[in-house]
Design a protein that fits this description.
52% helix, 5 strands, single chain, Beta-Lactamase, alpha+beta, five-stranded antiparallel sheet, 11 helices
Length: 241
Amino acid sequence: MVGVREQDRERIADVIAQEVRDAEPGEVPERLCAAAVRLLPVSGASVSLRGEGMPVPLSASGARAAYLMEVQATLGDGPCLRAAETGAPVFASDLTTGRDASLWPVYAQQAAAAGVRAVYALPLGDRSVCVGTLDLYRDAPGELADDDISTARFVADVLTVALMALPRGEEAGRLGDGLWLSPLATDHDEVYQAVGMVMAQCGVTADEALALLRAHAFAEGRTVLHLAHDVITHTTRFDPD
């Protein structure tokens, strides 16, 4: 564990081992989120995969972390998306004021309303290959200590290895079966189905269709996932202007 003090190694390894013991493959990301909360001065954690045009929420330590994960997917903006795009950590240590609040004003407002004041996003991978992010949430503003950053990086590395090792393709049947993915991830298939339907209804590109979904979801105070479900069940229709 590069950067982790010798005296902390056994404690970190023990917590991770406790959390993942007897876990099914699809449970591993959620268990590692729980380990991150136990090991770090944070109130929540989530993990998202890097998807086509938007992140795919995979697992979270609780309802609030899952909600904030969905908020970024809906807005298409936030520190976690920046980390996925750059392959570098993004630490928003104070979403209530200053630089962080001005960089992501809408997300910062939504996070603060949910009681989160700081978000720390670590890439799962690096600048050359980034498969997603580990996102950490804290109720109070402030920077992570160096030891905590080292621990967070290690948990992110473990998550990266775990995600790459999860069965997929022929090992787990068709990807669409969601045999290893959590419900959060498989539910996001509906977003891509809705993008296709909006493309057909409005005669627009995939990027434009996703932008329309996001704009309508935000205007209605909903997540893009909830709106997508209405689109594919024909409850909501997008008509060309």
